[in-house]
Amino acid sequence: MMEDKPSILAPGALRSAPAASPGHAERRALLRGALLALLAVGLGVMLAAALASGPLHLSGRYRSRSLLVFAAAALAMLPGLPAYHPFPRLGPANLVSLVRAALVALLAALVGEQAASAPLTATVIASAVIALDGLDGWLARRTGMASRYGARFDMEIDAALVAMLAVLAWRFGKVGAWVLLSGAMRYLYAAASLCWPLLRHPLPASYRAKSIAVIQMLALVVAVAPWSSTTLAGGVAAAGLVCLTVSFLLDILWLARHAVGRARTVEGRQ
């Protein structure tokens, strides 16, 4: 299911003014609820990692890495919450996104694991993250709690999922190091926008970008899957990277064309 949210292929889409900030009491209630949700989901991460470590023969470091990754995600999500989420509670959509973030933390902790079960575990976790994608957007619209914050939170989870799958595909020996470009491209775009103001302009919602985002995630799931040969993994990962590269280039060309249009409009008014 594809919902109206910025794609990981459109990192400039959320460079807009903050939503109307809630009052002091509402901000306190929002942050208190968010902290309780983070604590509950963090405990779930610890429990899931502990229960999985034994049967899946994962190392003792798997649990600590899972918790550290989730803690880092929690620290990253809190600062923008009051400014970009104008509601007194986190809402069910962001709770689903939080669960997705927890699953990505469990996925990221597999980096460096040598257990034979790691590829299958990664495939199952990543599939669950993708399956939940779209539910958060639907819930946000259903409950009337759509916000810039929720859209950005969901977008960053998608970007992190792609990055971790790319790393795992490489670490599992299924694909060469070139696959890391798939995970790095969104972050390279964001870094380039610091030096190139053109990339800071928002991009419109795009069915093409959303479709390619899904294709990229599914391609990398196939690449890490234990039943995929290196030939199949390399082929689908390369196809996903080509699609992603073309999509970024189309976005940049769109921004360049509209920048020229804006410049001509300004000149015409002078």
Low-confidence stretches: 1-17
What are the secondary-structure elements, in order, as H or E? HHHHHHHHHH
- Can you count the helices? 10
Largest sheet data: none
- Overall pLDDT level: 85
Give the fraction of residues assigned to helices. over 70%
Determine the N-to-C terminus distance: 47 Å
Task: Indicate the topology.
Blueprint: H1 24-53, H2 61-77, H3 81-84, H4 92-108, H5 118-132, H6 135-143, H7 148-171, H8 180-195, H9 207-224, H10 230-269
Helix pairs in contact: 1-2, 1-4, 2-4, 4-5, 4-6, 4-7, 5-7, 5-9, 7-8, 7-9, 8-10, 9-10
Structure commentary:
The chain is globular. It has helices spanning 24-53, 61-77, 81-84, 92-108, 118-132, 135-143, 148-171, 180-195, 207-224, 230-269. Helix content is 70%, strand content 0%. It is mainly α and 270 residues long. The chain starts with 23 loop residues before the first helix and ends with a helix. It has one domain. The chain is built from ten helices and no strands.
